[in-house]
Amino acid sequence: MLGRRRRVLMAAGIGMLTACGESASTGSVAGRSDATPASTPEPRELVLLVASSLTDAFTEMGDDFPRQAGAAGVKLTFNFGASSLLRTQLEQGAPADVFVSADTIQMDQAVKAGLLDGTPQVFVRNRLVVVLPRENRAGVLTLADLAKPGLKVVTTPRDVPVGNYTRQALEKMAADGQFGVGLDQRVLANVVSEEANVRQVVTKVQLGEADAGVVYASDVTPRVAPEVRVIDIPDRFNTVAEYPIGVTKQTKAPATARRFVEYVRGPAGQAILKKHNFIPLA
């Protein structure tokens, strides 16, 4: 009888231990989440480093993009400036989700520095024109007049895209017999200041602080046009500027950044760029 009772008690104890073990195990599973945690939503803001010649067009896009499907509530914050300066800022750790350059040189350097995610894409083109103050007191009538002694010309440093394009155009003119040998050097000898970006070149000419400057066709905006005269640069001398756009590796909103790139290259973005005198993608 005693032996039987001992066996019953032992069985009961084992059962209790088993139950406790199952309870502890169950508690451990309950305390540990095996489910995949929900992904953190992307920030609803993009910071963009954008070439200054795109100021008006991208400002308009800043209002239009949030109206697109899937982009409701997205805020775009722009930092406009010379492409070379923006690329340097990106290299130094400036926060940005998207980099937009006015030439492939600065974008290629950003790619080599490992700053971009994926391959940048050209999204628009531009061409050069000469702008003069409306009064045109210096009497500039032709491209050859840019070499007149004493003329005050403004441009940008060569590492700024428009400054590089300007020098390329002048070199093409200098190689043409109608302008005479050394036209490029004679024009550059007239440069009285090198501005930080193309918008500052436009401002100098508008204010009459310079007699001429080479800028993009898109810089002759409806606001600027009444205050300047324009001399076209024929295609054989002109340099077509290609603008690439890329998503940075540091972005915390990669899907939204890529959606913006698609928007810029799509019908809505291209329509805005065309409206601002850029040459849209074919």
From TrEMBL:
A GO MF term: metal ion binding
Record's keyword annotation contains NAD: no
Entry's Gene Ontology BP terms: molybdate ion transport
Keyword Metal-binding part of the UniProt annotation: yes
Alphabetically ordered keywords of this record: Metal-binding, Molybdenum, Signal
One matching Pfam family: SBP_bac_11
Database matches in InterPro entries: ModA (IPR005950), ModA/WtpA (IPR050682)
Designated name of the protein: Molybdenum ABC transporter, substrate-binding protein ModA
Native source species: uncultured Chloroflexota bacterium
